[in-house]
């Protein structure tokens, strides 16, 4: 049957079954029978499927992201437990060790996500990545010199590069735009909890100092690396891949519902999406030349530069307030907890409204306020500890909602598995450049005032706000232009085959604001 049905039929499919607003009107790539199936699918059953999916997918992604972030950022905990002294590190050696992680992380994000998109079982690929970075982390605990530390940090970047964009890609395979940010927020908050949990773990593990003749900071790397290996093995059995590979816990009817709503959302059939995979180099070229990806990367910088700077330096910042290293490890917990709560609340309301921009810009305004307080009070830190510690909590409250918001906004506005995989990978690669910048923002020679760190964090947050406002303006403009084209005009200008290949460039596609 011709998939080009009446506007009324399409509206019924959207409103009654799919509950999303930024979608295509044709060609949907499904039959009238499938459209009727979606339109008549019980709402309570739809909600039950999503609840079932939420419990299967999100907690395990959160666990994997927790161990990934702990392994990435625990170098800050190891630093105040004596790592720099034992490895004879001087001046900016620590900053170099932190930043070298991001070089392969940036270079391998697109290749890793492109490979992931070709896997029928992404759990195998993600599991292999997790095991590999766990092994590297364990080996970090036995390095004997600064060169060894640089080598393991570099390899950690190689192994972790594919995980976060891969997780975003997997979420996009299961959920619609109006459902994505809250789910991304749920597992991304584990990065905030990683900061809290890492401090707690480091506090406990550091007590093992001297056991078997091994320094406490080495035990931090060894034990946390072993935990990652265990999670990687479990990934093969616990991470859900796609509806088609979920027959153990989904019925045939539920699988059909989940697959059809994705087809309707992206406006092309499975055949068109399979054909897209064969054009991966053409799609990669279009992604690399898409200025919107670069602008979204600037929005991402508003978070990544100050966020990584704070994450790698928070234990040191709290130590500079006059606390002992053990107390400093514990005092990292409240700011990260505040950040986790903020991200979840922001994601929930952003999905409810399906509106990304304000839930990026408002948190970044909070970041600006936080760093303005830190900058103004840092000259007399000893007498301003309550204000400065509160500002650290405020900074986390503003920083942690931004990454889920940007990630959801980006994947909501890309269509097709290859374009999504490459677009998400590339945007994350651009954002990771902020991690390199963040690695050098807090210099030991500027302690405890850190004018460079606080000033750059302020500036990058402002850049993120301006870029997000600009992106929404452009998306609104493009949506208005597409609204002015009738369906008849579109079919006069394009064939079905051309429309199927256009993805988010299709005049039927509407951008999420």
Automatic annotation (TrEMBL):
<dbReference type="InterPro" id="IPR020846">
    <property type="entry name" value="MFS_dom"/>
</dbReference>
<keyword id="KW-0812">Transmembrane</keyword>
<dbReference type="InterPro" id="IPR011701">
    <property type="entry name" value="MFS"/>
</dbReference>
<keyword id="KW-1133">Transmembrane helix</keyword>
<dbReference type="InterPro" id="IPR036259">
    <property type="entry name" value="MFS_trans_sf"/>
</dbReference>
<feature type="transmembrane region" description="Helical">
    <location>
        <begin position="357"/>
        <end position="377"/>
    </location>
</feature>
<feature type="domain" description="Major facilitator superfamily (MFS) profile">
    <location>
        <begin position="57"/>
        <end position="479"/>
    </location>
</feature>
<feature type="transmembrane region" description="Helical">
    <location>
        <begin position="154"/>
        <end position="174"/>
    </location>
</feature>
<feature type="transmembrane region" description="Helical">
    <location>
        <begin position="217"/>
        <end position="240"/>
    </location>
</feature>
<dbReference type="Pfam" id="PF07690">
    <property type="entry name" value="MFS_1"/>
</dbReference>
<protein>
    <recommendedName>
        <fullName>Major facilitator superfamily (MFS) profile domain-containing protein</fullName>
    </recommendedName>
</protein>
<feature type="transmembrane region" description="Helical">
    <location>
        <begin position="423"/>
        <end position="442"/>
    </location>
</feature>
<feature type="transmembrane region" description="Helical">
    <location>
        <begin position="389"/>
        <end position="411"/>
    </location>
</feature>
<keyword id="KW-0472">Membrane</keyword>
<feature type="transmembrane region" description="Helical">
    <location>
        <begin position="454"/>
        <end position="475"/>
    </location>
</feature>
<dbReference type="GO" id="GO:0016020">
    <property type="term" value="C:membrane"/>
</dbReference>
<dbReference type="GO" id="GO:0022857">
    <property type="term" value="F:transmembrane transporter activity"/>
</dbReference>
<feature type="transmembrane region" description="Helical">
    <location>
        <begin position="94"/>
        <end position="112"/>
    </location>
</feature>
<feature type="transmembrane region" description="Helical">
    <location>
        <begin position="53"/>
        <end position="70"/>
    </location>
</feature>
<feature type="transmembrane region" description="Helical">
    <location>
        <begin position="124"/>
        <end position="142"/>
    </location>
</feature>
<feature type="transmembrane region" description="Helical">
    <location>
        <begin position="186"/>
        <end position="205"/>
    </location>
</feature>
<keyword id="KW-0813">Transport</keyword>
């Amino acid at each position: 049957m011709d998939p080009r049905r009446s506007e009324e039929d399409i509206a019924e499919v959207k409103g009654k079954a799919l509950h999303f607003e930024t979608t295509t009107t044709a060609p949907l790539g499904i039959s009238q029978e499938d459209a009727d199936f979606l339109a008549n699918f019980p709402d309570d059953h739809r909600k039950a499927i999503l609840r079932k999916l939420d419990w299967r997918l999100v907690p395990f992604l959160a666990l994997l992201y927790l161990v990934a972030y702990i392994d990435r950022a625990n170098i800050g905990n190891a630093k105040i437990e004596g790592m720099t002294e034992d490895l004879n590190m001087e001046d900016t050696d620590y900053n170099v060790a932190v930043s070298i992680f991001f070089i392969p992380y940036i270079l391998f994000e697109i290749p890793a996500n492109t490979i992931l998109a070709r896997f029928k079982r992404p759990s195998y690929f993600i599991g292999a990545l997790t095991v590999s970075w766990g092994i590297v982390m364990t080996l970090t605990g036995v390095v004997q010199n600064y060169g060894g530390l640089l080598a393991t940090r570099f390899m950690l970047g190689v192994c972790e590069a594919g995980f976060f964009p891969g997780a975003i890609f997997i979420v996009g395979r299961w959920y619609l735009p109006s459902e994505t940010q809250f789910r991304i927020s749920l597992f991304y908050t584990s990065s905030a909890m990683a900061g809290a949990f890492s401090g707690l773990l480091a506090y406990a593990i550091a007590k093992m100092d001297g056991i078997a003749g091994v320094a406490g900071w080495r035990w931090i790397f060894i034990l946390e690396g072993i935990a990652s290996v265990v999670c990687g093995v479990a990934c093969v059995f616990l991470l859900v891949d796609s509806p088609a590979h979920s027959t153990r816990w989904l019925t045939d009817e539920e699988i059909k519902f989940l697959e059809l709503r994705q087809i309707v959302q992206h406006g092309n059939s499975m055949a068109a999406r399979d054909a897209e995979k064969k054009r991966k180099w053409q799609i990669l070229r279009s992604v690399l030349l898409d200025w919107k990806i670069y602008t979204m990367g600037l929005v991402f910088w508003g978070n990544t530069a100050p966020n990584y700077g704070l994450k790698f330096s928070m234990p040191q910042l709290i130590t500079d307030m006059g606390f002992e290293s053990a107390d400093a490890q514990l005092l990292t917990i409240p700011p990260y907890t505040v950040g986790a709560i903020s991200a979840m609340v922001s994601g929930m309301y952003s999905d409810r409204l399906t509106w990304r921009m304000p839930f990026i810009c408002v948190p970044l305004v909070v970041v600006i306020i936080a760093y303005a307080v830190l900058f103004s009070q840092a000259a007399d830190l000893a007498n301003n500890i309550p204000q400065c510690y509160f500002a650290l909590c405020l900074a986390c409250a503003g920083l942690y909602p931004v990454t889920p918001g940007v990630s959801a906004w980006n994947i909501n506005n890309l269509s097709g598995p290859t374009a999504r995989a490459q677009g998400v990978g590339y945007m994350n690669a651009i954002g990771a450049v902020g991690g390199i910048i963040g690695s050098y923002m807090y210099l030991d020679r500027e302690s405890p005032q850190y004018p460079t760190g606080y000033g750059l964090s302020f500036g990058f947050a402002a850049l993120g706000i301006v870029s997000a406002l600009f992106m929404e303006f452009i998306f609104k403009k493009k949506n208005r232009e597409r609204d002015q084209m009738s369906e008849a005009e579109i079919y006069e200008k394009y064939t079905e085959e051309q429309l199927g290949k256009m993805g988010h460039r299709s005049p039927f596609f509407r951008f999420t604001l």
